[in-house]
Structures are given as structure tokens and as C-alpha cells.
Amino acid sequence: MSATVEFAKMNGLGNKILVVDMRGRTDKVTPQAAIALNADAATAFDQIMAIHDPKAEGTDAWIDILNCDGTKAQACGNGTRCVVQALSAETGQKVFTLQTVAGILNAAELADGTISVDMGRPVFEWDKIPLAEEFFDTSRIELQIGPIDNPVLHSPSAMSIGNPHAIFWVDRDPMSFDLERFGPLLENHPMFPEKANITLAQVTSDASLRTRTWERGAGLTLACGSAACAAGVSAARTGRTGRKVTIDVATAPSRQPLTIEWREDDHVVMTGPAEWEWSGTVDPVTGAWQRDEAVEAPGAEAK
Ligand SMILES: N[C@@H](CCC[C@H](N)C(=O)O)C(=O)O
């Protein structure tokens, strides 16, 4: 087995993603490699999406997801769009069936270059999100932060879209909250036995939201696709919006919206962009890496 594999530095709305090609190998990107890559400013990332050979018939690849602290994640919406763009640039294929620990994801690169991912069905049962306490209705759970008689954030909607999310509804710009302070407290709150991704969501119309996320295992990121899915579903579930919304991710540099549709068949479909930045090679055991000389995006000449 070669000591190094190819990888691409990409982003989904600013969410920093390393797509690592582990096909043809039996080993995995180690947590140590993830931590080393994240410690280097040039390769600092939010998630690694490691592409492995498919495990099930009818699927194109198995995807292993690591947060920048070396922990595993079950879902990553922005990273999945990056994987689709990378595979599409390599093969010309437009439609993919990917598998993660959370299940099968059907995805496609659309004619306008955006990527649509069916993120599966939302999970609302308290013990499957999971929450530490039984709640019959997880669309508004008892949890608050700040003074007991005047909480800063309270009564989030909880759900899983493969990974656990808590959506706190706010009535002003999410950027005006000190999420850097509250994020770690809420991510690690005893209510969430597997921790949680924490999102502030402001309803801006009956078909749009503005969000900002503190990610489990990664902290403040510029965007979080699965959180956008959770916010869109939770908004519809609580009657705040319809089932199709655009999400203005407050910290995304391009300010391109994500579209989230909670279809009538219960599947959640996320559509948005992905961007290649540069490619290189990396040792998946140590994280030692080197950047390629090539400057053009893979597959660029074919477009
Ligand atoms: N950035 C991701 C979510 C990443 C996973 C998360 N930090 C977790 O541990 O659940 C996205 O775009 O969905």
C-alpha cells in the first residue's frame, strides 16, 4: 500500500472540507492525521470526507467522515456535495449513490453545477436523536441558557439527520449572539449524550431562514449543511415555514443560499454549491502532506 493518497482541499459554502481518496485501501484516515492536518493553517479543515471502496451493491462509494478534532461524524451535508463534485469531475458521472454509517445518500450534480443530496429521513424520537431525557415532543424541548427568568436561548427543536442537532429559534440576527461562548456549553450539555450541533435560526419569511452553527467536534464553522437541513425541517415541523426553504447561512462568504426541501415522502433534499480549491497528496496515518503543482480544477477542461 502506498504511503500517500490524493486529496483535495474543497469547501461547501465556506465549510472547510478535505476530500481524501482512500479507494483501493483497507486502512482509514487516522484521528492523528486529522489532528495534524487541522493544526496546519494551509490544511485546517472542518471535516474530512474519506472516499472508500463501496461496501454494498449498487453504491458508488463508502464515505467515512471525521471532524477536525479527530472524532467521527455520521453526516456532513456540505462535505457530501464536495465528494459528489470531486467524483463527477473525475468520472463525468452525474448521479451517485453513497453510503455512510447513517445510511444511503442519493446525490446528483445538476446542470447549473449545484449539487443535490437526499440526506434521508429526519429522526425525531428522543432516544434516537439521542437526548438524555424522554420527550414526547422533541420539536420544543426544555433546555435553556442564561438567567432562568430571562434566558438568552431556550426551547430548541431537536432532531437527527444522521447526526444530532438542536435548533434554537431567535428573533434577531444570529450574528448578534455570542455563539462562541454558548456553543461549547450547549454542544456538551448533559441533555446530549452524543453531544450535538447547535444552530441559531431566524425565520426571515415563510420560505427562508438565516442560520449560524456551532458544530460538534469542529466549533464555529462558516457553514453546516446538515444543520441547514435540521433547521429547514424543524421550521416546517413547528409551523414556522413551508416545507421548502432557502437558508441564508449567515457566515458563508459567498452568501449563496442552500435550498432545503422536506419532501412529502419524508426525505430531506439539500441543494447547493461545492468548490474545489487545490489538490495534493497526504499520508493518511501521519497527516504529512504535499500540494500538487497543477492549478486547474480536475475535470475543468471537460466542462
Ligand atoms: N459540516 C457538516 C456537519 C459535520 C458533522 C458535525 N460536526 C457532527 O459531528 O455531527 C455539514 O455540512 O453537515
What proportion of the residues is helical, as a percent range?
A: 10-25%
Major sheet details: 18 strands, mixed
End-to-end gap = 33 Å
Overall pLDDT confidence? 96
- Reading the helices and strands in chain order gives EEHEEEHEEEEEEEHEEEHEEEEE
Structural class, from helix and strand content?
A: alpha+beta
Portion of residues in beta strands equals 35-45%
Which regions contain 5 or more consecutive residues with pLDDT less than 50?
none
Examine the coordinates and then state which fold CATH places here, giving the name of the CATH topology of the largest domain.
Diaminopimelate Epimerase, Chain A, domain 1
Overall number of structural domains: 2
* Strand tally: 20
Bound small molecules, by name, code or SMILES, are: the ligand N[C@@H](CCC[C@H](N)C(=O)O)C(=O)O
What is the count of helical runs? Answer: 4
Name given to the CATH architecture of the largest domain: Roll
CATH class of the largest domain: Alpha Beta
CATH 4th-level superfamily of the largest domain: Diaminopimelate Epimerase, Chain A, domain 1
Integer-rounded radius of gyration: 19 Å
GO molecular function: diaminopimelate epimerase activity
Catalytic activity: (2S,6S)-2,6-diaminopimelate = meso-2,6-diaminopimelate
Active site: 76, 76 (proton donor), 224 (proton acceptor)
Subunit structure: Homodimer.
Fold and architecture overview:
The protein is α+β, with helices and mostly antiparallel strands. It has two domains: 5-119 and 275-295, Roll (Diaminopimelate Epimerase, Chain A, domain 1), CATH 3.10.310; 144-266, Roll (Diaminopimelate Epimerase, Chain A, domain 1), CATH 3.10.310.10. Helices cover 15% and strands 35% of the residues. The chain has helices at residues 31-39, 77-91, 179-187, 225-237; strands at residues 5-12, 15-21, 47-52, 61-67, 72-73, 95-100, 103-109, 115-118, 144-145, 153-154, 157-160, 164-169, 197-205, 208-215, 219-220, 244-249, 258-262, 268-272, 275-282, 289-291. The chain has an 18-stranded mixed β-sheet that branches. A two-stranded antiparallel sheet has the order 9-10. The protein is globular and about 60 Å long. The model has no long low-confidence stretch (mean pLDDT 96). The chain binds the ligand N[C@@H](CCC[C@H](N)C(=O)O)C(=O)O. The site of ligand LBFN2T5F has 20 residues, from α2 and α4.
